[in-house]
Amino acid sequence: MFELPKLPYDYNALEPYIDAETMQLHHTKHHQAYINNANKALEGTEFANKSVEELLSDLSKVPQDKRNAVRNHGGGHYNHSLFWKMMKPGGGEPSGELAEAIKSKFGGFDKFQEQFSAKAMGQFGSGWGWLASNNGELEILSTANQDTPLSEGKTPILGVDVWEHAYYKKFGPARAEYIKAWWNVVNWGFVEELFAKSKG
Ligand code: MN3
Question: What's the gap in Å between 11 CA and the centre of ligand 1?
Fold first, then answer.
């Protein structure tokens, strides 16, 4: 059974970029709802004790009548669990091997930010913008709804939630303004950790 993870900071810690009320609702209502629905779908089955990573890594192993619930609600639980850790007050820029990899793949940090933001902006409707590691090779992609790069065999290392619930209260329909603000709270240390692990 899945449980709501504690945030590694206070709800107001990402102000003024992400407002406290949005953080609180996003964590206690939206994330909790994904958990409740995933648990309800898997309760009493052999899949209830598996990790969400294992389930999402190979959705074809999940019985067909549970697959959508795992994909949507399990995906929501997994994506949000990562998202909270991918942010922290302070922000900054990547360093070390990740900085090198970004430079060689995208031609520099600014160009990477432009391409990532454009991909997240271009996601029609609800979904996520991602930087993923495909066996160490960096890739920018977006997914619809709560789909995760993990189900495509890629390791998500940075993600931005572009569902309206992530920004509407503060930014209204201005998704671009939200993404611009979000760059100020990226937890690059965690992203670097995920990148290193993805290379085995
Ligand atoms: Mn969300």
Answer: 15
pLDDT tens readout for residues 112-138: 999 999 999 999 999 999 999 999 999
Give the Å distance between the CA of 107 and the centre of ligand 1: 30
145 C-alpha to center of ligand 1: Å? Answer: 9
Instruction: Please tell me the pTM assigned to this model.
Output: 0.97
Identify the CATH number of the domain in which residue 41 sits.
Answer: 1.10.287.990
With bands split at pLDDT 50, 70 and 90, how would you rate the model's confidence at 53?
very high
Q: Which residues contact 24 (CB under 8 A, 6 or more apart)?
A: 11
> Distance, CA 117 to ligand 1 centroid (Å)?
17
Dist. CA 100 → ligand 1 center (Å): 30
Write out the residue range of the structural domain in which residue 144 sits.
96-198
CA distances from 64 to 42, 47, 50, 53, 71 (A): 12, 13, 17, 18, 11
Calculate how far, in angstroms, residue 76's C-alpha sits from the geometric centre of ligand 1.
7
* pLDDT recorded at residue 105: 98
Amino acid at 94: P
